[in-house]
Predict the 3D structure of the following.
Amino acid sequence: MKTLFSKFKNLLLIGAYKILVIFEKLTNKGIALDFISKDYIDNPYKTYNLMRSHKPILFSQTTRLHWVTKMEFAQEMLRDKRFSVDDRKYPIADKRRKEFKKAGREIMLEQFENPSMLKLDPPDHSRIRKLVQYGFTNRYISSLEPEIKSVVDNCLDKIHNQDSFDLIEDLAKPLPAIVIAKMMGLPDKDLDQFQSWSEDLLVGVGGIGTSKEDIKKSGDAYESLINYFEEIILERKDSPGEDFIGKLIKAEEEGDKLNIKEMYGTCLLLLIAGHETTTRLIGNGMFTLFKHQEQFNHLKNNYNLIPNAIEEMLRYEPPVHATVRFAENDMTYDEKSYKRGTAFAVSIAGANRDPEANKNPNEFNILREEIKHISFGYGPHMCIGASLARIESRIAFEVLFERYPGMALLEKNPVWGKNLIFRGFNHLKIKS
């Protein structure tokens, strides 16, 4: 009976969604953000370009968000104090709290009330970021290169004699999880469990049509990781060490320190952000190169171009497609009035393809000059791990080109993952 009711409920939801799509098309001259359609999943940029041409800030009925696809507006919203990231201040928070309580997720509720710096506005955000930066100095991140190279080699050694491999499962997914674990100084015996929790956690983040089973799996992994970090941090309080968690414990600025919940949130944030960005950057970047074979061949013979190619990959096929901001107060923006708490989806992918920001934005060009993108954010919330993601990706591409100069896609049209926030592949089969 439950199964029948669930199916009926899903049919009603799909029907209601389709009505919203039709209504959105009627009100926006045939344009709608139909995020479950195959056309959108295969090529969301066509939709973003149409949205920008019609209205650079367009309200989508299907997501109940105002989508911002113009680079100028996107950058302004990401740096302007009139736009907030702290969803605890607005009506949406009550819904989240009820969901956590109903699901018995007390740990997740507690972390929601004590968010990471990703969900904080200044001055709280500024305070935590300043302390966390002690663990992300350029000198420290650069010193990790040999360790990152070793992780890449170890991942590829496991599939060395195979005729083909899965770029995502065999390299892009484990690489950032292992690197973060090593940065944090986690015991080698915990690496497999840590990676498993990492993967389970991410199945519930931003997915389209995520199943109840995956949501539960993600929630269980979230709480397991918080409990794990709590145990590790409390163990090291009196003897912090020189790893990243040690740096967080010792970090101090004008008598200020991170409290214990801020440490949990920071560790979890770095895991999610670092994992998703690097995994999808490697997968999306390599896929794009395969689709542009001349540039693939040019790059594998000119490693010095890899850093610029990575910036173009970030612009053209970004790992993160959108981030949310809220109107701090009642306001007027671009000659329109918005109520306090109005939610805006800042479309990173849409802004990156804005022709006012980049000439010929729908062309992929690893030799492009003055590449303008916001794939690592912009303003005070600029991704603190951007340099780490760039180094991990650069080393991954260098080693892949070195080991497999003749590699090619096994599937002509691999399946894009169904996710409104993160864009990438769950699998990408490569002939070695």
